[in-house]
Amino acid sequence: MPLSEIVNIFAGNPLDRASERRGDASWIAEKLEDAQSLAVAVWNGKVLIEDAPGADGEPSGVQIAYLRADMAKELAGTDERLLFMGLWKDIAVFAVDLEGAADPSEGALSGLGRFEELRGAAATLPAPDAGILGTAKSMFEWRRKHPFCANCGQKSEISDGGWKRICPACHAEHFPRTDPVAIMLAVHGGKCLLGRQAAWPQGMFSALAGFIEPGETIEEACARELKEEAGLIATKVRYHSSQPWPFPASLMMGLIAEVDSDQAAPDQTELEAVRWFDKDEAKALIRGEIEDAFAPPTLAIAHQLIKTWCESDD
């Protein structure tokens, strides 16, 4: 049962994370050999998927292409590349991180699925599958970028089913990092403000956003980013929803922020342009009906912020 009326893509991982089982190495080893246990596969950041059969026998989107866990263990070769994801009812689910130039779906995993970028596949994945794959991708990005102890510099070792790293030299414990981001739709006088960065596809406009700094609340970060990027003063901030964003490992805090004026100016560092849209224009934007501008895709929380605001009575 959803805890919020708004569930964004990559949220809603349905697995029981069973964190109390992570430290039981013998139980995890047993489950890896269990013929019922399953695994998802990630190769160089891409995820293993397959076509989902529709009612008429034709593909209707995509779904996770599961492996047997014992096969994933053999492919991994070491616990360093394995992650205990949790339980689906009584079935243990793992993930395996594969690297290298050769596509495993053309070798050891031939006929079992294909590897695709998660960002593209998410649009047609079932929401639970997207949540599972997003978790696996974020965890493996953390593992790949943090192989050494931040305290003493020695190589750390995997522990707790992949959810912790321990330094054998100084015994420091290291846990996965999630970067909090405030992403806000600024509104004033019946219009919303969107901006664009130079690196984005031509014509794309989105909500403003920035990382939350130490010592800041979510609301304070929102106000700071609006002032820095667009020269606007926030007068009221309300929470909309959140979204895990596995590119590589952020948690997007979606906000709608009332501002004191419509005199916005892009800082030319983060943003090259800003533009106000009234509700009719915002509706046209998310429908793709504005010739020189378009909104972020539906999988992005920015799209949902725009949609919520332009369809509201506020």
Automatic annotation (TrEMBL):
PROSITE patterns: NUDIX, NUDIX_BOX. Its cofactor is Zn(2+); Mg(2+). It comes from the Bacteria. InterPro entries: NAD-cap_RNA_hydrolase_NudC (IPR050241), NADH_PPase-like_N (IPR015375), NudC-like_C (IPR049734), NUDIX_hydrolase-like_dom_sf (IPR015797), NUDIX_hydrolase_CS (IPR020084), NUDIX_hydrolase_dom (IPR000086), Znr_NADH_PPase (IPR015376). GO terms for molecular function: hydrolase activity. It catalyses: a 5'-end NAD(+)-phospho-ribonucleoside in mRNA + H2O = a 5'-end phospho-adenosine-phospho-ribonucleoside in mRNA + beta-nicotinamide D-ribonucleotide + 2 H(+). Keywords: Hydrolase, Magnesium, Metal-binding, NAD. Gene3D superfamilies: 3.90.79.20, Nucleoside Triphosphate Pyrophosphohydrolase. Its EC number is 3.6.1.22. Residues 176-300 form the Nudix hydrolase domain. Belongs to the Nudix hydrolase family. NudC subfamily. This is NAD(+) diphosphatase. It comes from Caulobacter hibisci. The lineage of its organism: Bacteria, Pseudomonadati, Pseudomonadota, Alphaproteobacteria, Caulobacterales.
